[in-house]
Specification:
Structural class: mainly beta
Shape: rod-shaped
Radius of gyration: 24 Å
Number of helices: 2
Mean pLDDT: 79
Order of helices and strands: HHEEE
Largest sheet: 3 strands, antiparallel
Helix content: under 10%
Distance between the termini: 57 Å
Low-confidence stretches: 26-45
Strand content: 15-25%
Length: 106
């Protein structure tokens, strides 16, 4: 676009800003430089280990599987969770399975 503006009509430059030049590497490739362990998780599009039925998070909450119901976050499904301390069962968005705490025990 700037090629179509006559030099005399341009606003005087105060700070020079370099033009964006598209790199040959994609954003995902840049993010993974020197970090091979994240390559699959960022590129595969598959669900992570936390969404596998039977997964137990660090708060001793077990993932009992997907309910198939829509969650309250966009694009999320609800998963049935069970507290292994008191046995209480509840539902959580898939994105929250890894960090959930029991609603009764916390």
């Amino acid at each position: 676009m700037d090629k179509n503006v006559v030099v005399s009509d341009r606003i005087p430059m105060i700070h020079k800003i370099e033009k964006y030049v598209k790199s040959s590497k994609t954003t995902v490739e840049k993010a993974n430089i020197g970090d091979e362990k994240n390559t699959t998780s960022m590129t595969s599009g598959k669900s992570g280990k936390t969404l596998v039925e039977g997964y137990i998070n660090r708060n001793n909450q077990k993932n009992c599987g997907c309910t198939g119901k829509e969650g309250n976050h966009e694009g999320q499904k609800l998963y049935r969770m069970k507290c292994l301390n008191c046995g209480f069962e509840y539902e959580a968005n898939g994105c929250d399975v890894w960090l959930r705490k029991c609603l009764k025990c916390q």
